[in-house]
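Help! Submission page says 'invalid entity' but I think these are all valid:
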Amino acid sequence: VRDAVKPLLAPSALPTGYTLAGLRCGISNKPGKKDIALFYSSRPAVGAAVFTKNLVKAAPVLVSRRHVLSSKTFRGVLINSGCANACTGPRGLKASRESLKWLSAGLGVRKEQLLVASTGVIGRQLPLPPLRAGVRRLAAAVRRGGPGSPKDAVEAIMTTDIRPKAARFAFPWQGRTVTVWGCAKGAGMIHPDMVTMLFVVLTDAGLPRAALREALAWAADRSFNRLSVDGDTSTNDTVFLLDNGAPDDSPALRKTFRSALQQVCLSLARQIAADGEGARRVAWIFVEGARTEAEAKKLAAVVATSPLVKTALHGADPNWGRVVAALGRGGVPFDPDRVEVRFGDMVVFRRGQPTDFSAKAAHKLLDKDEVTVRVDLGRGKAWSNYVTCDFSKEYVSINADYTT
Amino acid sequence: VRDAVKPLLAPSALPTGYTLAGLRCGISNKPGKKDIALFYSSRPAVGAAVFTKNLVKAAPVLVSRRHVLSSKTFRGVLINSGCANACTGPRGLKASRESLKWLSAGLGVRKEQLLVASTGVIGRQLPLPPLRAGVRRLAAAVRRGGPGSPKDAVEAIMTTDIRPKAARFAFPWQGRTVTVWGCAKGAGMIHPDMVTMLFVVLTDAGLPRAALREALAWAADRSFNRLSVDGDTSTNDTVFLLDNGAPDDSPALRKTFRSALQQVCLSLARQIAADGEGARRVAWIFVEGARTEAEAKKLAAVVATSPLVKTALHGADPNWGRVVAALGRGGVPFDPDRVEVRFGDMVVFRRGQPTDFSAKAAHKLLDKDEVTVRVDLGRGKAWSNYVTCDFSKEYVSINADYTT
């Protein structure tokens, strides 16, 4: 997987007109860890964003949300790791605002044209002197022009991530190439909880703002909103989409772009699941034969977030019983006797009972990097899916001592 | 804890007129593990029960539910471990019915006067020859009379439990002693999921059926329904309450009995939390200052079941940020600036920010067998609580290889 991502971190992978930089300024406690990144557009870019639905929102979320509402174009996204700047009160809010003021001066753009995100420990204040120095050095780096270093930027936004995450989809369009490039940070969790997910997607498509927003909402619902690391729960979750292309309002472009954006977001979501803290494999949970897509999604989420299902996946244990029991508490009134459960293509449960499947063969089927669990409810034609990861001992080691 | 339970497993701890027996018949795969138990009343007893709300119900749940509805008095409860007899179709249903038929013949009572529960692996059929032999030996054992062996019975219903769980509350009543004795199996989980919880509570109070039912519903809502190992999710969860006392319909007895029953159930719930698979400590989560008890309970449940809160508790990490973030996704529109969070008596979060607390002192406060997390929402006077356990690496080892 790491090797597959490598070419996507090369400067040539970026859409035109963007410069990326990442470096260490000293916010993070991890020695040597790069901790601040800038995603800069040399031309004004149209933007769209999705923010966390958590009631408790971090300072950078409040600042960026305001800028997204008040500004028509954007020039850059500043992201630090090592400190979430959440639950930090007025002082934290001021720190996020100041950082954009410094960046605005360094780049010679309006501060409302800048967006900001943070990830790391909650409740700690951002240390201002290193932050200020970092912002200055980033501004100086992007002024040099060219694509800069996507690799440095992506590494600088990582926290508990083991692997950098990037995805790219390019398509020819009326004599030019439209590129959609995205990166993300976040690691798969046993439950939608509070490890921050950040996505930055850059393109040169040239769509108008309304089309960009519509495409992001559509792609979100088909990618990171179906990840068991749900986007709506941390204090800091943020998705930014910038488009610095020459204006082009063709409906055909909109449609192709939407698919490209979904591909990129889905690939990033999959990489997050695969990079689950201590995770060994990615699992796709399909719930089919439902009355509505909503009930299918609800049950897929229950199965995908069940700790007992996820620990069974870790051991490649063909424990269909845990799948069925998770379905049973999902609040959808299906008939257990009409349910079918498959691991890969092997039917393991049918008509209220396990089939006569070989446990050994089923184990082998599940002992892979990427596995599929399919449920057919037998009550309709709607379906939905979720991507999740298995759940290992390492998860606990990572999370038991996160702040101490 | 084990020592505290010991006297409660002595024959003298039981209310009058009950005989308990437990033995190994060979249903469980664990060598030497006792796997079948009988709770017998020498007199007809009035009964009440609570069953799982999971849509997928095990065969013994279906059989017992029917008996509870059709019969006015009961003589015994048969419980096996090692096989849940869930998702086993018509054959499983027949096995549960047969076992009660054999027991009915062995005891000379109507089979509708018998109740049954199972716990263990889902989807396996009960092996009939050992089951039949076990039932016969149990019937023979209780026919000898006397209290029998509560210890054997309690051990026989255990699965992943490390410690046997029992509780007792006795009070003087008009020249006699009313005893409420209960035992349980179940181990704390990181999430309401599907480890079965079984409770058997025996008393000689003498209350009418309606009073018994009302008391059980009341106590349930104040004990195991506030355990993060929730009673409504496994395929097999069952609570049985038997009362073989001479009829006494005094309102004062009802009231005292209700409290006694709550004490016993709460103690059993606490023991289940403490026996969490790999758990190191019990945590009481209080949410106060809410508008309604329902919203307080909802938020207490979110905090009590958050894997990140539970891993932090494991490391005695004073990570109030995880508590606040969990609250924020609970769906209650509180004002984060009015929230106060305390570990024990130490305020760690107030007015949207952490206080200047000592991390070392807070760690010490949390590094105990039993800890308290208190949240004040600052928006009303209602409150609720939940009991939970920390979440350790051992949990994963236990659950990753449960069937294989």
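Support: the input was valid. A stray whitespace character was the problem, and the output above is from the cleaned input. The CA atoms of residues 192 and 229 of chain A lie 5 Å apart.
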